[in-house]
Design a protein that fits this description.
Two copies of one chain form a homodimer. Chain A is built from 13 helices and twelve strands. The first copy, chain A, is α/β, with parallel strands linked by helices. In chain A, helix 2 crosses helix 10 and helix 11 runs parallel beside helix 13. The first copy, chain A, starts with a helix and ends in a 20-residue tail after the last helix. At the A-B interface, helix 2, helix 4, helix 5 and helix 10 of A face helix 2, helix 4, helix 5 and helix 10 of B.
């Protein structure tokens, strides 16, 4: 779906010119990397180090892993060491390594709809079976529904907070309740349920919201992190896997993660980026810039009559389609040269996703088109929230 | 096996000091990257480009792919375009993407023993079945044996020339004969056999040897290339996949390679390295440095009485063990603080591998130990070549 919009976008841009097309289809951060990143890059580029670009250990440079462990220790109070960290090729690489390490064929992995479009692929890459559980109407995890979805075969649950596509940040209560559920089910089954927390947006939060720590809440947690959004360098493929110090069979799991990093062909996270992020553990892009874009967009869409929950983090807005057929409404927006992604692509029909990591002018100039599009459907406007579809992976 | 030697090495180095241990276990290039690479890195680091580190297309930057296509066109005479290239995270990433794109569960992939230790993992990652075919005594492909190993289920054959662990460069006749065999078998089965050529060492060749082009010889060829050895930057994970313009179902295959780059979590090859290699298509490390190391090592080992074929490329020497039990002989070398890898690890017992991408002094200082070790077994020295084991993946 995203790719289709991307291709539609290329055609439209050729026809009408770049600045006349309002492309909200891709989550490609448009806030530039922090100056500190550039300084560090130039410093490292210039350093005379023998074999500076040689293989690193499969898990990454010890000093990089230590820097990550220290940061997590500071924020969580846990005693993390370099041995609990494996540097990865972004969160996408991290999740593939984690799932390859965890899954036996036929193992079930629960994901919450709406979901990041790549999860089903990642799970099926390792012969896992995807189980879709809808979130509640406010996009928070539905603890009871997750409980009902857990079977003997459930190996892991993936959560993503701040969330793509909804911008939802899971509350401390949600995380605590999830942890309690997993502990209970783990005891019953005498096998742990792994909580895989995909957290590339953990630093992209608004209005002083805090992202509750999954590591602190639950010992069978594994974090997949990426610097892609925090430092605006998604093309450089640098992130990490962090494992709770008291996770079930910790030594075997770490060995598996390191082996899988090797045999999936990642071998090691890019060496130069490892060196750089070692010194940028507390640096982030200016999040206020995204917050301003969110506010501009939310004000405009609310005034036009759209319904949505104001995102607390990430850079996505998940908007209720004024008509149940989200694809049809997305098509209507296309006539305004506005590119968004139908909710069906995220397993959640009746909605569409706006990635607002774009220029302020793109948002400002698109608002008129958004307003015109919803006007067409005013007479039929549904006053009660549309029921979201329960699940189903979209082709 | 390699990892075990690596760990033995750490223990030995702690005990005796770094300079008293002769570590030939890892293929980590020790010739520094070319000055042109550093210049290009500093230039790119300093450039002001909006979102310089953003996502690239999954296949890579169009200009990088074009630069690669031009280079291959020049050397082969084929009409390659950017559309035949997918940038990858090194050759390891390239091979995983290729195998994921090609294989259905149960498909067979032929590899030639001795083989690069990661191939069986890569194939089994995608539920492929590994078929081992021994090379001839001079380590060239045994065309008749490969022909006999091809079944209805054979999807691909992986070759690696210049070869790890033998340093063998396959002759033009070998490549031509392989191509003829695959064309014949392809016609008989009415389905193509893909030739996957793993070519990270194609620029590391000695004595003016030329590496024959697989692309020129056979249209169902796919190249997995890495800049790791050519530019001495294995830690940066940059390489490419090149597909013959007339390969079977070219469009579908390219789409599959791009999709697999995405869903395996690579997403795109590291952006900064893509920018750099665009301008370094004709740059290589000083290969003469490796040639000198090879000559120093070969002279010393020949004088001590070892038997081996002088490598024509790469930076490995595959030496016949003076006793059939290669692990026992490797253990004897350990007593001399010499670390090498038993041939069993490459599916070829009775041999051991020396990675000579080390300091000249390491080679010079180790020769005495090599000489002492073989002396122990002189009385029992076997005068005829030991039969190499036929196959069998080593645990």
């Amino acid at each position: 779906m995203i790719r289709k919009m991307f291709e539609e976008g290329i055609t439209l841009k050729k026809k009408h010119g770049e600045d006349k097309v309002y492309d909200f289809s891709l989550g490609n951060p448009n806030v530039d990397h922090p100056e500190a990143f550039k300084r560090e890059l130039i410093k490292v580029a210039d350093q005379e180090i023998k074999l500076k670009h040689g293989y690193t250990p499969n898990a990454g440079y010890p000093e990089t892993r230590l820097a990550v462990a220290r940061k997590i220790s500071q924020t969580t109070g846990l005693k993390m060491t370099a041995d609990h960290i494996v540097m990865s090729c972004g969160a996408g690489g991290a999740l593939n390594v984690i799932l390859k390490a965890l899954l036996d064929p036929g193992d079930e992995v629960i994901i919450l709809t709406p979901f990041f479009v790549e999860y089903p692929f990642y799970i099926e890459n390792y012969d896992g079976v995807v189980k879709y559980v809808p979130t509640r109407p406010d996009f928070s995890p539905d603890i009871a529904a997750i409980g009902r979805a857990i079977t003997r075969k459930t190996k892991a649950v993936i959560i993503n907070s701040p969330n793509n596509p909804t911008g939802k940040v899971y509350s401390q209560k949600s995380i605590t309740d999830l942890a309690r559920l997993f502990r209970k089910k783990g005891r019953e089954r005498k096998r742990p349920i792994y909580l895989v927390a995909d957290e590339p947006y953990s630093e992209i939060v608004f209005d002083g919201v805090k992202v509750p720590s999954t590591l602190k809440a639950y010992s069978n947690s594994i974090i997949a992190y990426s610097y892609s959004k925090t430092l605006s360098l998604p093309g450089e493929r640098i992130g990490y896997i962090a494992v709770h110090p008291r996770i079930h069979e910790a030594d075997d799991l770490m060995a598996a993660l390191i082996l899988c990093t090797r045999i999936l062909g990642f071998v090691n996270a890019p060496a130069l980026m490892q060196r750089i992020v070692t010194h940028l553990q507390h640096v982030t892009v200016d999040v206020k810039i995204y917050q301003k874009k969110r506010d501009l967009l939310c004000r405009g869409l609310a005034a036009a009559g759209y319904e949505f929950a104001k995102p607390q983090g990430a850079f996505y807005l998940f908007v209720k389609s004024p008509i149940p057929d989200d694809a049809a409404f997305v098509h209507r927006l296309l006539q305004e040269n506005i590119l968004v992604v139908p909710g069906s692509g995220f397993g959640c029909p009746g909605y569409f996703r706006i990635a607002f990591c774009v220029e302020d002018s793109t948002i400002a100039n698109a608002l008129e088109g958004f307003a015109r599009a919803i006007q067409d459907f005013r007479p039929q406007k549904i006053s009660r929230p549309a029921r979201r579809g329960s699940s189903g992976r979209n082709p």
